[in-house]
Structures are given as C-alpha cells and as structure tokens.
Amino acid sequence: MLTDTLRKCHHLRRHLRDLQAEIDRGPRVLQGQRDTLEEARAAHKAHHEAITQLKVKQRTDEATLKETETRLRKLEGQLLNISVPKEVAAKESEIAQAKAKQGELEDAILATIMEIEQKTGEIPAVEKAWADAQAAFAEFERDAAERLERLKNDQLGSRDALAAAEAELPEEPRAKYNSQVKAHGPDALAGVKNKVCQGCRRGLTDQKWTEVRSGALMACPNCGKLLYPVVE
Ligand SMILES: [Zn+2]
Questions:
Q1: Strand partners, 189
Q2: Which of 10, 127, 151, 223 would disulfide-bridge 200, Cβ 3.0–4.6 Å?
Q3: Region at 201 (left for phi over 0; alpha for psi -120 to 50; beta for the rest)
Q4: Which of 132, 106, 111 is nearest to 43 (CA)?
Q5: How many angstroms separate the alpha carbon of residue 214 from the centre of ligand 1?
Q6: What is the whole-number distance in angstroms between the Cα of residue 221 and the centre of ligand 1?
Q7: What is the distance in A from the centroid of ligand 1 to the CA of 196?
Q8: SS3 assignment, position 224
C-alpha cells in the first residue's frame, strides 16, 4: 500500500538525516579530544620544565651563597686589622648584612631542594597521566574510525533502501512526494496516530482519517505534510 511505502520512506529519510548529523559531529568531537590531549601534553611538559628551572635556581643560589661566604670571610679578616671604633662599627654592619644574606640564601636553597624532591616524587604520576591521555586519545581515534565506517555503511545501505522504497511509489504521487521532500526533507512526511497528525499535532476529521487509512496520498490540511497511519 502507498502509505506503507511513505512510512518506510519517512523512517529511512529521518534515519539518514540522523546519520548525517552524527557524521558531521565527528570532527568537532575529535577536536575536543585533541584539545584534551594537548592540555595533558602541556601539563607534562610544564612539570619537567619546572624541575629544570628549580635546578637552575638552586645552582644560581649556591653560586651566590659561595660568593657571599667568601666575602664574609674577607670582611671578618678585615675586622681583625682595624681598631677605629667607627670603622669597626661599619665593618660589623657589613658583616651582619652578609650574614643575613647568607641565611636567606641557605633558606631559599633548602626550599628549592624540597620542591625539587616533591616534584621529582610526582614524576611517576605525571608520566602515568600523560601515558593515559595518549592511550585514551588513541582509543578514541580507533573507535571514531570504526564508528565512522559503521555510519557510512549504514548510510549506503539506507540510501539503497530509500531508493528502492521510492521506486515503489506510483508515478503520480511520486511527483508530489519528490517536490515535497526536495523542499522539506524528512519533514515532508508525518505519521497520523489516533487521528492526530504527528507533524503539527492537530486532529484530522473522520473523513480525512478514513482516507489516510485507505492508503490514498493525503496531505495534512493544516501543515501540508504527506500522511500515513502510524502502525503501533
Ligand atoms: Zn499536520
């Protein structure tokens, strides 16, 4: 019956639209996964770079500490050879400043060493997170390729099935059907359930409902969609 063919065509056209939407979504979803991977790559790199920078800071501070210690010894030596109270006071002040700097550097070096130790201890977890991110992306890519192939096969099969179904339409309704689907795609068609058009949710008259069930090509008087009775 004509309406059976319309029902089949509607189902296939909607299915094809859904398939195309899912295929079109693919690149966006892939980009999202790629962004996640790049974030993981950046976090991994930043961790190692932070350790490198801390080691540079440690070496720089150690060199400055060494200079400060040398200067301190020199100042203490100089202090032994002066006796003018004003000069002694000035030298002692210089020594106090150098000692304060020495203390600050020692504290800074200790803090840096502890931070390096902490970050070094975190390396196994950081490496695991990076490896996991790469594995997850590889898995996603593999799944996405399989999914795309499945969708494309479904698309080919559904297109063939649609062409076969549409070929069943008699000449005269086919022209009307073609112009409607050309303009509206799957939305050119609507099922009717309990006398209600599923396209516009308006009720049909008993006469129209009888005509739809008889298998005639009927357009909804309200929304213009081509109608077929829904089979429960
Ligand atoms: Zn309608």
A1: 226
A2: 223
A3: left
A4: 132
A5: 18
A6: 7
A7: 8
A8: coil
Q: Which residues of the chain fall below pLDDT 70?
A: none
State the helix-helix crossing angle for 171-184 and 2-80, rounded to 10 degrees. Answer: 20
Indicate the burial class of 27 (C-beta count within 10 angstroms; 0-12, 13-18, 19 or more): exposed
Task: From residue 144, give the alpha-carbon distance in Å to each of 23, 29, 40, 208.
Answer: 10, 9, 20, 47
Burial of residue 141, with CB atoms counted within 10 A of its CB: 0-12 exposed, 13-18 middle, 19 or more buried = middle
Looking at the chain, the domain(s) classified CATH 1.10.287.1700 span 2-8+22-168
- Write down the residue that tokens 């297109």 correspond to: 159
Cα–Cα distance, 73 to 204 (Å, whole number): 105
- Residue 208 contacts residue 218 (beta carbons within 8 Å): yes
Fold classified for 2-8+22-168: Helix Hairpins (1.10.287)
Length of the chain: 232
| Amino acid identity for residue 74 in this structure | K
| Nearest by Cα to 30 from 150, 143, 141 | 141
What integer pLDDT is reported at residue 133 of this predicted model? 98
Distance 164 CA to ligand 1 centre (A): 26
Helix axis angle for 123-167 and 2-80, nearest 10°, is: 160
Tokens standing for 146? Answer: 């399989």
In the reported structure, the alpha carbon of residue 139 is separated from the centroid of ligand 1 by a whole-number distance in angstroms of 45
